[in-house]
Description:
Blueprint: E1 4-10, E2 13-19, H1 29-43, E3 50-55, H2 73-88, E4 94-98, E5 101-103, H3 105-112, E6 115-119, E7 123-125, H4 137-158, H5 164-170, E8 175-177, H6 182-195, H7 198-208, H8 215-224, H9 227-236
Parallel strand pairs: 2-3, 3-4, 4-6, 5-7, 6-8
Antiparallel strand pairs: 1-2
Helix pairs in contact: 1-2, 2-3
Amino acid sequence: MEPELSHAVADRVATVVIRNPAKRNAMTAAMWRALPPLLAELAADPEVRALVLTGEGGTFCAGADISTLRGSPAEAQGLAVAAEEALAAFPKPTLAAVKGHCVGGGAQLAAACDLRLAEEGALFGVTPARLGIVYPASSTRRLVSLVGPATAKYLLFSAELIGTDRALRTGLVDEVLPAGELDKRIAALTATLATRSLLTQAAAKDYADGRTDRDTHWTTQTLASPDTEEGVTAFLERREPRFTWSVPTSG
């Protein structure tokens, strides 16, 4: 099987699968390049209400394919950062479903998701110190925002792998599931997210990510959207709301 990113959309949830089983789902240059346009396509699809990123089989992603670093490490890192930033900017809820190793560039991708759920036994590592690479500034800041400066320094200084107990305790993951339960939990959570107001979710995502340039945008969107009236009416009528706001094509 050639390394690739595959995707499918079902029940209003897009699932993107990292596939490179010969190298524990390491990301090749072509895969890094393919991710931003794929995300743009899924962001523009009104049927997609949430996105799950996962790996083929029992591994999430072992990082970047090291062979891609031999030519131009700076170029390879630039591709990874562009993919990471595209994932972080995806305007709908994103979830990383982690089994096995989530290391290096894989950890970058997981950190760029809104939520991270892991199966017991998963291992996490941020490993540029093993290769003499300076971790990107944006990636470092995102890691610090998740786990705090002390844990971020530990991960970056040591390049050691940590298990799900420590990952949960430090905030690197949001939930840890027993073996065999991760897919079920992801399906249940995304089904819930798909019923909620995307207007609320998208605005909350901007604000939680620290954007200070979107206040007027979200005020305008709220005034023009029927979601608030629908939500209140549905609550009073004791029925499930039917939210209709979608991401504007202009962002």
